[in-house]
Amino acid sequence: MNRLALSMQFKRESLTDRLKQLLIEAEQLGMMGSWELIHASGELLWSLGTHRVFGIAPTITPDYALFLSCVHPDERERVDQAYRSSVATGQAYDMRHRVVTPDGQLKVIQARATTSLDRQGKPLRSVGIVQDITALAETEQELARLAFTDPLTTLLNRQALMRELTRRCGDEPGEALALINLDLDGFQAFNDSFGVAAGDRLLVALAARLRDQLPADALIARLESDEFLVVIPAAFEQMASWVDSIQALVGALNADPLQQSLAPTASVGASHFPTHGHDPIALVQSANTALMEAKRRAKQGRCLYSAAISERIHQQLSLEADLQQAIKHQDFHLVFQAQVGRDGALLGAEVLLRWRHPQGHLVPPGVFIPLAEQSGQIAAITDWVLDAACAQVVQWQQKNLQVPRLAINLSAALLGVAHRQLDQVFLATLARYRLDPSAFELEITETALLQHLEVSRNQLIALLEAGFQLAIDDFGTGYASLLTLRVLPATTIKIDGSFVQRMQRDPVDLAIVRRSIQLIHDLGMVALAEGVENEQQQNALLEMGCDGFQGYLFQRPMPAEQFAEHLVALRSA
């Protein structure tokens, strides 16, 4: 009996040793470690992995002061506050911060911890993990650099400008800002006369002058070709003076960087926050509207935005009224665009909304969808789209035609409505048609996800738990946090078509696409490229390992009847 007991004890000890070794190896592979603090005794225990993460020898006995000394000085107070708050309240914390090892190595770690309290609310025990995510942070930084910097001038690009402008306009109280949109006069003729290289030198010289001469807190971006946008903290009364100054800076470029006896000029349009509104997109549009008016007037023109030049706004209001009637009478129809796999097989189709105006012309979705979002009509439109898509699926099923999945776009404005339970609304619609949510993929743009991150995340997780699939659309234009993508289990990431269409002539866009596909696969998701228009693009994407494709090369958006014929042809093949 004693021999049997000894044998069982030996097996338990052996198993315990194996489990300890397994934990050590798992921490090493995951570049992570764990720790425990007993508050009554003050005893702090670090695993070997934690010693590795902080670069502290295992022979050194850790304490809280040692840990805090490892934290980067700029973040020490923030980390200390998070820990002490957890100890005081028992709430867990999850944060990213930098540490500096004794040999001077800078690391980025993800730290998670929680504290258990007794009945009197006193801390008993804290436990946590730390993970070295330096490589992940460096990848994020590199992608941000590629995605948000103009490669020629190293200024901000449009996406970076809009992100920062959105932040500044959202500050309370918001600082007054002048938005100055400038465009070089006759730039295309200059390129034709002196060559693209000379044109590039002019743009680089202009970027350098703007960067050197404007205030440090100014935002300077190259939007496209020879068009720039400058955002300067300024009162409305100062805006005209800044317009004069920027036009003078352009005129001072003269021949030095070009070796040509030419003095470039620029046309300028400007808008003002908050005088002309609070929406960053509308403010940029207003500055551009003023620029177009300045160019219409004369070379080296200038125009400050005002209601006098805003016929566009009047037309928008008229269109909004027409849209209300279209929703009331359901004057919409759906078209479908195929999504195909690497072998050409049908993966599914994206559902696209079309509106034919009473005057007979099609109104682009890029016009009426933002209008619906601004006017609060997007929910009714989305409900109609889902209902019509479900009805169409049932019709196809009755003809023994199957689409693996249908992708439906979700608006940022819809996700921003915290009280509207999308999962319940959508499930109720599908229930009427006896359809399974797994046959539907919901597309949300990356930018929309970032605009309403917390509400969006909660809404989307509820939809995922209900059985819907999720795709992140226009990937690369808003730069969603990689950790956000990890937390939000999307099934598909759609690479924005603008990158696909430019990658053959722009090595920066090619690098963005290649690294995005690699990143998507590393996250265990499916990469689908939009806007594929020719075989050269498809072949390049195939070589990069892209999983799926959508674009005119495979199929233009088509009405349900034509798409059904396409399904019949596939079934017969």
How would you describe the overall organization of this protein?
Strand 7 and strand 8 form a beta hairpin. Helix 7 packs across helix 8 (196-213), helix 11 crosses helix 12 and helix 13 packs parallel to helix 15 (422-433). Helices cover 49% and strands 22% of the residues. The chain has 4 domains: 1-26; 31-132, PAS domain (Beta-Lactamase); 140-309, Reverse transcriptase/Diguanylate cyclase domain (Alpha-Beta Plaits, 2-Layer Sandwich); 318-572, EAL domain (TIM Barrel), CATH 3.20.20.450. The protein is globular, with a radius of gyration of 29 Å. By secondary structure, it is α/β, with parallel strands linked by helices. It has an 8-stranded mixed barrel with strand order 11-12-14-15-16-17-18-19, surrounded by 4 helices. Strands 2-1-5-4-3 form a 5-stranded antiparallel β-sheet, sandwiched between helices. The model is unreliable at 255-259 (pLDDT under 50).
